[in-house]
Amino acid sequence: MSAQAYLQEWKQEVETATRRLIDASSMPDRLFQSMTYSLEAGGKRIRPALLYAVLDTYGRPRALGHEAAVALEMVHTYSLIHDDLPAMDDDDVRRGRPTNHRQFDEATAILAGDALLTDAFRILAHAELEPVKSVALIARFSEAAGSAGMVGGQLDDMLAEKRAGVSLSTLQSIHERKTGALLVYALEAGAILADTPLADRQALVRFGKHLGVAFQIQDDILDVEGDEALIGKRVGSDEGNDKATYPKLLGLDGAKQALEREVTESEAALAELSVEAPRLRELLDFVVQRNH
Amino acid sequence: MSAQAYLQEWKQEVETATRRLIDASSMPDRLFQSMTYSLEAGGKRIRPALLYAVLDTYGRPRALGHEAAVALEMVHTYSLIHDDLPAMDDDDVRRGRPTNHRQFDEATAILAGDALLTDAFRILAHAELEPVKSVALIARFSEAAGSAGMVGGQLDDMLAEKRAGVSLSTLQSIHERKTGALLVYALEAGAILADTPLADRQALVRFGKHLGVAFQIQDDILDVEGDEALIGKRVGSDEGNDKATYPKLLGLDGAKQALEREVTESEAALAELSVEAPRLRELLDFVVQRNH
After folding, report:
1. Closest chain A residue by Cα to residue B113
2. CA-based nearest residue to A283, from A83, A17, A8
3. With an 8 Å Cβ cutoff, are A32 and B107 in contact?
4. Higher pLDDT, B270 or B240
5. What's the pLDDT at B190?
6. How many CA atoms lie within 13 A of A277 on its CB side?
7. Least CA distance to B123: which residue of chain A?
8. How many domains does chain B have?
9. What is the H or E stretch that residue A97 is in?
């Protein structure tokens, strides 16, 4: 099977689990509609894929990871809903459909985001796991998503957009938190659930960090040279504003070299695992070769 | 000591714990400023007070409850920040100071709320407790705060404001979730931490439900006849709009009788505890006798 085929499988796993774990009967219908509108908007489900790929790699059942995978997708989705708000990026369209606040209204979008975030912890806390594992999953998840992780990265990104001359290290620190933290968490959650040796868990975290940077550089490169129809936003849309990107700071060739280095580091981390990890390697290839 | 004196003690406990548990060094300074601006805005800290009062009642150290108390206040604070946003209640002033989005900006206020909510789970997950207790605290907390609790109640409240003829049962269902759920959680968290017998935990939950309704009816009565300088908002401000309140649905006398019934039920719940609970009784008196 190819990475594409596995991605399709993992995507179905998390989408089926999401429908099972979100309880429509316990909440106002409008809230349910708004939450599921964005949850079901599709996307590659990269975070759940990374988590399931770790479980596959260690021969553990995917069912172990459903709650953590759904929680990851819920938190990723809430962050997109809030980022799209008029006070933030003010986006009208995401994945070819009206953004949540355009489809519903701003207040509903704010609350749908709040509910997705809170309910993600509810779902994770109700997973049938040894309590010590649940606590570890929740502790690391909240670190990755909170002020020291995703939210902090988002705030710094917003501040950086307002000023010129953002350095490479600032750009990296923003991406590490804004998008990298949840990618790393997906791998670490897989390691916790699969009971990997500690050295493997550390190597998976390192793999996640380099994969996250590679993912971002590839995003920036696609924005310069990608096919507009495939990536769903105007190509070059980062260029018109002052937003710092890898190609702007390093030149297009420099960005491609940086991408190559991150791929090499990612592969080195995988080589340290106590097991073969072909699915993680294929996911890496997919991330850096994707054209959208 | 009087309820007032205990409230002062509990307030200091949670405020000291908050300063200790929020780590300024791990987040952008602007995010820290915005989060602490609203966290330190004061208030009666009723939720932490209820939790500490349960620990006091069962002779358990307050230090057991610091993380849960701080998490409660963080989630309450995030809900106020998001409720005040232009797309929601559009309030410029809270507790005599500019609301968070007026003091900072809307994007920062949204992110400060998101971070307070996420970090509340981080702090709770890092409490040094038996893992099974941590999981129970987190599971119940996320239920109380999420789509089935506070966020769902807030969305229904918003929808109810737009239409006339809200029934008493709808009004109660909204308050039970919007404000009641976190009050009940404060008591239940105290019971979990104090290892009370199950019957005591159930009685504390029942106490919390009636206390929550009493709290809300008293709020509505104060809005009709309170002293403007004390409550800090225009007296009668609920009257000008179509907002459903207990006095509007039951008349002022009817509301006062309903309040009396809730107090009686609250006292009955306390009488069922396996221990004497003078501090919880005083907190109840404080809630229904307060003039602001």
Report:
1. A114
2. A8
3. no
4. B270
5. 98
6. 29
7. A139
8. 1
9. strand A97-98
User: Rounded to the nearest 5°, which phi and psi values hold at A91?
Assistant: -100, 140
Burial of A231 (0-12, 13-18, 19+ CB in 10 A): middle
The whole-number pLDDT of residue A16 equals 97
Q: Which of B107, B114, B142 sits opposite A125 (nearest CB)?
A: B142
Q: Which of B120, B48, B21, B192 is nearest to A121 (CA)?
A: B120
Confidence label for A151 from pLDDT (cuts 50, 70 and 90)? very high
User: Using CB atoms, which residue from A31, A121, A151 is nearest to B121?
Assistant: A121
* CATH code: domain of residue B217: 1.10.600.10
Residue B212 pLDDT grade (very low, low, confident, very high; cuts 50, 70, 90): very high
DSSP state of A45: -
A contacts of B138 (beta carbons < 8 Å): 121, 125, 135, 138
Q: What are phi and psi of B163, to 5 degrees?
A: -130, 155
Does the interface ipTM go beyond 0.90? Answer: yes
Specify the pLDDT at position B233.
56
**Side-chain half-sphere of A169: how many Cα atoms within 13 Å?**
0
**Contact by Cβ (8 Å): A66, A14:** yes
B28 vs A156: CB contact, 8 Å cut-off? yes
What is the pLDDT at residue B154? Answer: 97
Contact call for residues B84 and B21 (beta carbons, < 8 A)? no
**Cβ neighbours for B243, distance < 8 A, ≥ 6 positions apart:** B161
Task: Compute the distance between CA of residue B114 and CA of residue A157 in angstroms, rounded to an integer.
Answer: 16
Determine the Cα–Cα distance for residues A271 and A278; give it in Å rounded to an integer: 10
Residue at token pair 């990608």: A226
User: Please, is A102 exposed, middle or buried when counting C-beta atoms within 10 Å of its C-beta (0-12, 13-18, 19+)?
Assistant: middle
**A154–B111 CB contact, under 8 Å:** yes
Among A209, A212, A211, A220, smallest CA distance to A246 is for A220
pLDDT at A225: 82
Query: Per-residue confidence at B228, pLDDT binned at 50, 70, 90?
Result: low
Nearest CA in chain A to B109: A87
| pLDDT value for B244 | 86
What is the residue range of B163's domain?
A: 3-289
Q: Which two tokens stand for residue B6?
A: 């205990």
Q: What is the pLDDT of residues A246-285, one digit of tens each?
A: 999 999 999 999 999 999 999 999 999 999 999 999 999 9
